[in-house]
Design brief:
The structure holds two protein chains of two kinds. Chain A is α+β, with helices and mostly antiparallel strands. Chain A contains seven helices and 14 strands. By secondary structure, chain B is mainly α. Classes of the chains: A alpha+beta, B mainly alpha.
Chain lengths: ~300, ~260
């Protein structure tokens, strides 16, 4: 029993686990993760596809193949750290303790990772300018304005969501959400994730009555359906429409002042909607603290080593 | 243009190094060509940074130029500080690695257009992540070269010295790489995407690289593992470093498709 305990807490065992986890994690990058079963049965040979599914290699980082050796490593590191600490206290020898702080940091990161694995939640919301959405009990978020900034060469420079945070209907604060600068509301964080450009067309019918259609919406007419797709900004700036007659469908390009299916086009508008990720990460502060501990441990190890050499 | 001049100077340095290696004399000349080459490469990054108003290490070209510059600076310091003949081989090996990286930088896979970063890359944590990673990896280059020399050498004293060089290089590079690649990278990811770690292929291979160097450092506490085993680990670690940078970008896809 003592031999087993000694092996389980040895550096050799830790190194074996490192190599095992390392090799299989590397192999996991060669297999697309999280796809549906048919993807693996269709794209891999019978034996290989079956093995991937049997071992849960398609969700490797939640499989026993990953979690069991990781758990063993956690136990190994924990027992090693306790043994080192106990030895130091018993012998009174002032060894370098930088590595011990590094080990504590790693243990805390693993604990944080496990908490997040079960408790982390992520959602996604689309907001149009002026739209308000409840994100927590008593708390809501209103998008006041969305800016999509471009560099001179047309590449994206920034996406800015100008928002107002409301509590029980009262404005609490205004903020700007942009990439790398999330907004924190209580235990949630909102990240600038995406944007959507929605085109709309304004049409006048023969009696002068005005109709508005958003992208991918249509009007049913007596003998056909007229669908507005979007504005073609790459070539001619005209609207792209489709007329559907049963199985027939043909595409029409028409601009402002032109006629399509008996309607006069009076204008195009573009609305930009913002896409925000909403994240609840219970272990955020624990992991952040663990990373600081790890950094401190690394620095201390280095400083103590140089000190010992001198 | 500046990188081209740096490359030409570096090639001249390599020629000088080869001559000294062939005539088996200690080379105290080429380091004075390696230094200006390094300085020019790093100045190029500074100039590009001023132009885009952000630290210019956000694409493959800039990453390769910066990495080459840091490698050359590192091997220059090694040779300048410790005049030992072993360091002539270190500076030669480092020059070759830097020359290969610069050759790749001048290829079509690394367009050299000066362009400010896209929104995801506009972060100080990104700067720390990339800078520290490359500085750490520059020391891994030294360890890699010393390990090759160790395995090729038959002289016991030389091997002992080379083993020490490998160990000290990794001992310096490891904490810097850990801070850059893992810690600062995780913090940047948390701010950008809302999660410290996504099991993205780039992250996994960076972690596997870190595993290998962690195994290296711990192997030195195990009797019989010093020397040959640790030298091979050092070589493996460097190979993984290069795969993490290139192989993942071009063979696997994920969040990190920047540079």
């Amino acid at each position: 029993m003592e031999k087993v305990y000694k092996f389980l807490t040895s550096i050799k065992f830790a190194l074996i686990l490192f190599l095992f986890i390392g090799i299989f994690s590397a192999l996991a990058t060669l297999v697309p993760q999280g796809k549906e079963v048919e993807f693996y049965t269709g794209n891999y040979s019978g034996l290989l596809g079956g093995t991937i599914l049997l071992l849960d290699f398609n969700t490797f980082f939640r499989s026993a193949l990953f979690l069991v050796p990781s758990a063993l490593f956690f136990i190994n590191l924990l027992l090693c750290s306790i043994r080192r600490f106990y030895k130091r206290v018993k012998s009174g020898v002032k060894n370098r303790f930088g590595p011990d702080i590094i080990h504590v940091g790693i243990l805390l990161i693993i604990i944080g990772g496990v908490i997040n694995m079960f408790e982390r939640q992520e959602g996604f919301i689309w907001l149009d300018p002026g739209q308000e959405m409840v994100i927590l009990e008593d708390w809501s978020l209103r998008l006041d304005n969305f800016e999509y900034l471009l560099y001179d060469d047309g590449r994206p420079r920034d996406w800015l969501s100008h928002v107002t945070v409301l509590k029980n209907g009262q404005e609490v604060r205004r903020a700007i959400i942009e990439v790398n600068k999330p907004l924190k509301i209580k235990n949630l964080k909102l990240f600038q994730n995406s944007y959507n450009m929605k085109d709309s067309v304004s049409l006048n019918d023969s009696s002068g009555k005005s109709i508005s259609l958003e992208s991918n919406n249509g009007i049913r007419l007596s003998d056909k359906v007229l669908v507005f797709s979007n504005v073609d900004r790459r070539f001619n700036g005209k609207g792209i429409f489709r007329e559907l007659h049963g199985d027939d469908n043909h595409t029409i390009f028409a601009g402002v002042g032109e006629n399509v299916a008996g309607f006069e086009i009076t204008g195009f508008t573009q609305n930009e909607a913002t896409g925000l990720s909403v994240v609840k990460e219970p272990a955020y502060y624990l992991i952040y603290f663990a990373l600081l501990i790890l950094t401190f441990g690394l620095a201390l190890t280095y400083i103590q080593k140089i000190g010992a050499r001198q | 243009m500046i990188s081209t001049i740096a490359f030409v100077i570096l090639l001249t340095a390599i020629i000088v190094q080869i001559v000294f290696l062939l005539i088996k004399k200690d080379d105290n000349i080429s380091l004075w060509l390696v230094l200006p080459s390094s300085v020019l490469l790093l100045v190029n990054i500074v100039i590009r940074s001023i132009e885009i108003k952000f630290v210019a290490i956000t694409n493959t070209f800039e990453s390769l130029v910066f990495f080459s510059g840091i490698i050359l600076l590192t091997v220059f310091v090694y040779k300048f500080k410790w005049k030992d003949k072993a360091y002539s081989f270190i500076i030669f090996g480092g020059s070759i690695v830097a020359a290969i990286l610069l050759a790749i930088a001048s290829s079509p896979i690394a367009p050299d257009k000066v362009a400010p970063p896209i929104p995801a890359l506009q972060s100080n944590w990104l700067t720390l992540h990339v800078v520290f990673s490359f500085i750490g990896e520059a020391f891994f280059v030294v360890a890699f070269i010393a390990s090759i020399y160790y395995l090729a050498s038959k002289n016991g004293e030389k091997k002992k010295n080379l083993d020490r060089i490998t160990y000290t290089a990794i001992a310096i590079g490891y904490p810097i790489y850990t801070a850059g690649a893992l810690i600062f990278g995780a913090i940047w990811a948390s701010n950008a995407w809302g999660r410290f770690w996504s099991w993205d292929p780039k992250e996994i291979w960076a972690l596997v690289t870190w595993f290998v160097y962690t195994v290296y450092l711990h192997c030195r506490y195990i009797k019989g593992f010093r020397g040959k085993v640790t030298s091979w680990l050092s070589i493996l670690g460097f190979a993984l470093t290069i795969f993490t940078f290139f192989g993942v970008n071009y063979l696997l896809s994920g969040l990190h498709s920047y540079g």
